[in-house]
């Protein structure tokens, strides 16, 4: 029989918006939700980027897959004293990334192309611009679908590692236990075991987002208890709410 859920640890930074579904879940279901990033991003230096034979002047288009990619592209441009031309084209994986771009450029004056959500969905748009020279600023960890799509389209592109995904120090959690741990990437699972090599699941439920995270959990010998996205629960908060309803309302 599953124990009732009172505490949840989400392995990501706390949402900056007041109306986050996590806060609603906390209120509605009377559970405690903590946010502690298991991984964080560190920018690489301009010198390291030069070592990768990346010359920003030779690119006519930038492919941006995340907010981190946006931040680190403009950070490196600044460090290299590269004046970003108004003619540069931006291909953003999602609306959220495109919207974030406004932090650095005047939106209406730039050529910005937006995908729907996944990188594959950006493919048809990229295909229309075969003559561009693309730069993909990325982390040292890259989803396999990204190079796969770019190779299949036969584009002229280079990848630059502009930042790294690094394991966070979680030693302050050593004696803390949660009813549910929530993970969004294989890197989160890697961080769990780097911080706690002897981690045993016991009564802890594990919630995961995405197939690659499911695989990482299973390969680590752990059990997935809550999974998103599914047709019934497309978001993690919906999956958590459904599970809490099931176990907390049992007579």
Topology (elements, then pairings):
Layout: E1 7-10, H1 21-29, E2 32-35, E3 39-43, H2 46-51, E4 61-64, H3 67-79, E5 89-92, H4 95-100, E6 111-114, H5 123-127, E7 133-139, H6 145-152, E8 156-167, E9 180-183, H7 186-195, E10 205-209, H8 211-219, E11 226-228, H9 236-248
Parallel strand pairs: 1-2, 1-9, 4-5, 4-7, 5-6, 7-8, 9-10, 10-11
Antiparallel strand pairs: 3-8
Helix pairs in contact: 1-9, 7-8
Name the descriptors.
alpha/beta; 2 domains; 251 residues; six-stranded mixed beta sheet; 9 helices
Notes on the protein architecture:
By secondary structure, this protein is an alpha/beta fold. The chain folds into two domains: 7-38 and 170-248, Rossmann fold, CATH 3.40.50.10090; 42-165, 3-Layer(aba) Sandwich (Rossmann fold). Helices cover 31% and strands 22% of the residues. It has nine helices and eleven strands. It has helices at residues 21-29, 46-51, 67-79, 95-100, 123-127, 145-152, 186-195, 211-219, 236-248; strands spanning 7-10, 32-35, 39-43, 61-64, 89-92, 111-114, 133-139, 156-167, 180-183, 205-209, 226-228. It has a six-stranded mixed β-sheet. Strands 2-1-9-10-11 form a five-stranded parallel β-sheet, sandwiched between helices. α7 (186-195) runs parallel beside α8. It is elongated, with a radius of gyration of 20 Å. The N and C termini lie close together (11 Å). The mean pLDDT is 94.
């Amino acid at each position: 029989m599953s124990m009732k859920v009172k505490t949840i640890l989400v392995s990501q930074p706390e949402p900056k918006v007041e109306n986050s579904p996590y806060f609603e879940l906390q209120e509605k279901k009377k559970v405690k939700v903590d946010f502690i990033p298991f991984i964080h991003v560190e920018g690489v230096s301009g010198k390291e980027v030069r070592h990768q034979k990346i010359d920003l002047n030779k690119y006519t288009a930038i492919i941006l897959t995340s907010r981190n990619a946006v931040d680190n592209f403009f950070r490196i441009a600044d460090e290299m004293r590269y004046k970003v031309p108004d003619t540069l084209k931006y291909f953003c994986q999602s609306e959220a990334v495109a919207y974030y771009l406004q932090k650095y450029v005047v939106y209406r004056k730039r050529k910005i192309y937006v995908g729907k959500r996944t990188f594959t969905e950006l493919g048809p748009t990229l295909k229309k611009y075969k003559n561009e020279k693309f730069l993909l600023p990325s982390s040292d960890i890259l989803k396999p679908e990204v190079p796969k799509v770019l190779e299949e389209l036969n584009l002229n592109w280079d990848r630059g590692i502009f930042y790294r995904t690094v394991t966070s120090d979680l030693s302050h959690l050593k004696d803390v236990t949660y009813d549910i741990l929530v993970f969004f990437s294989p890197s989160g699972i890697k961080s769990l075991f780097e911080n706690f090599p002897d981690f045993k699941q016991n009564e802890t439920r594990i919630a995961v987002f995405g197939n690659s995270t499911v695989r990482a959990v299973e390969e680590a010998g752990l059990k997935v208890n809550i999974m998103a996205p599914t047709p019934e629960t497309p978001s993690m908060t919906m999956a958590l709410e459904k599970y809490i309803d099931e176990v907390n309302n049992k007579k």
